[in-house]
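Case study.
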Amino acid sequence: MGVGDPYGMAITHAIASGLGGMRGAGDLVARMQMSRGMRINEAKAYVASKLKIGVMDLTDPVIMTELRQELGLGTVTPLPGGTKGIEAKFRMAEFLGIDINCVKRFRHNASF
Amino acid sequence: MKKIFTRMGDGSPVEMTETEIRRDLEEGTREAALRGKIPALGEGDLKHLLEIFTIPFRFVSVERGKEIVLSYDAGTLKIRRVGLSVNRIQALQIYEKLFGADTMELAHVDYSFKSIKPIVGNEQPVLEQALLVTHIPLFYGAMPNLGLYSQPDGPFPNPAELLPQGKIAEARRSYEDSVEAAVKDMVYVSTAMIESGADGINFDTTGAAGDPDFLATLRAAEILKKKYPDLCIELGMAGEFVLGMHGGLEYDGVRLAGLYPHQQVKLAEKAGVTIFGPVVNTNTSRSIPWNLSRSVTFMKACAEVSRIPIHVNMGMGVGAVTVTDHPPIDVVSRASKAMVEITRLDGL
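After joint prediction, the assembly is written out as follows.
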């Protein structure tokens, strides 16, 4: 993105053209770009097929909140007993079939 | 004839007729095509740009289904710059939970690898703790900033002092020494942050100090990719073409000075970069239609030849965004929409 106050830059781009982060599946699509070097259409198609939804639904906060709750991928509004933070990232790594660096580190440091 | 509200590159409001906007769109793409030796935008793209400028709404967006991934260079610094009294982990959470960020970046206020090296041990626990409570991928980012390697800030003779004395060879030697030192610092800091769990490393404003800066970053990326093959490396540029401060530096047999985005990305690919962030500078004395048409032309050529994801830089002063601290949403949203819909980019 770039320099500028968060309202003019981060928020404006997010609403104009962003995937919506964890309100939708933006973080999951980003993980496929970052871990596999997938370009945008391939990354979206991969995540949509894993979620068994259409590509158009990846930014839908109603569909995605339900799915994220069901799959334990973390939600914007945390629920009591629900997966949060690193717990959700354990689920993401398994669900997307990728390695997540901090998950590997957590597993290594927490295991006996 | 009806006047349409838009702005100049410095952000000042201006009213233009549809004919004037069309003329600037044509001139902007011609200028980019001439400089970059790339194709100018076709009639369909120019028409689409004109439509984006003539939409009367203050805010516009991409069509549903065309959304892209967002990455945030100097992420946590943006919160500090506006004076919010929150720490960096809270800043990451604000972006994740309130701003709809797809990724985020932890950054130190002294945003250069050289400055971070002595305090990297203090940076690691912050990232480690942040990773426990956040969900979105987290980068650690900083600038190569080769300017810090010459005297009085660094160990090597200052090329800006040597060049006026005609000491060309000495100046070049200083740049070459700076490259070696910068590579070591970038690899050192990045290794520490990767070992702490970072999802990616962002080399931000690469090339700010010209071709030595770009070369050092390509070499650091190459070393890190060999060391961590699964690592995500984002390389964002500082300007639209690589300044030839040294003039003779090459990477993989290609001279770096003067390269434009569609040429830079090919070297980034070779170095093992995962995501490339090209830049087109905003001209403050030309209109936003001129700047946006020019920017889109460069970015379209870059995204078309690229085999890796492209996250175009669209902050203050680049990507047709005005050179102002508080970019107006009429400009930013139009630039965002145009860039995403006309080029084949993967993110911003």
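Observations recorded in class. The longest helix of chain A spans residues 40-51. Chain A is about 60% helix and 0% strand. We will return to this complex in the next lecture.
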